[in-house]
Design a protein that fits this description.
single chain; 136 residues; alpha+beta; Double Stranded RNA Binding Domain; 2 domains; three-stranded antiparallel β-sheet; 3 strands
Length: 136
């Protein structure tokens, strides 16, 4: 089950973005995928629709309907945040960071790196190998 602290955090986030329970339309359907008899017989998948924004979220991560209800609300808050804040949202910042990391280095940066590597290699080549004659 979900801890009380996490539930309170979710409620605060929902209030921050103006999401009220009466604005949510919730329906339950049978999940698909692994889970055996529980998944085949019980409607554990939660479909949540926020009427004012028209956002629709579907959650079937867990086998428990109660846990999926919590996760669906959390997902809805995250999507509304991304929609309202745009580039300022945490998700957008994470994606931008990944793009920066995967971006190719400029020619100048590559040359600088190669020059530093070459200087380091020269330093190492000047070192004497450790041998038995050095210890006296």
């Amino acid at each position: 089950m979900v801890s009380l602290k996490k539930q309170q955090e979710l409620q605060e986030a929902m209030q921050r973005f103006g999401i009220e329970e009466r604005d949510l339309e919730e329906s339950f359907i049978r999940s698909s995928g692994p889970g055996g008899q529980n998944v085949n017989k019980v409607s554990t998948c939660v479909v949540l629709r926020h009427r004012p924004s028209g956002l629709k979220v579907r959650c079937q991560q867990e086998r428990s309907q109660a846990l999926n209800r919590f996760l669906a609300r959390r997902l809805l808050v995250a999507r509304l945040e991304a929609k309202q804040l745009g580039e300022l949202s945490a998700e957008a910042q994470r994606v931008a960071k990944l793009r920066r990391q995967k971006r190719k280095r400029s020619r100048r940066t590559k040359e600088k790196l190669l020059r530093l590597k070459f200087l380091q290699a020269q330093k190492k080549s000047l070192r004497k190998p450790v041998g038995s004659s050095d210890i006296e």
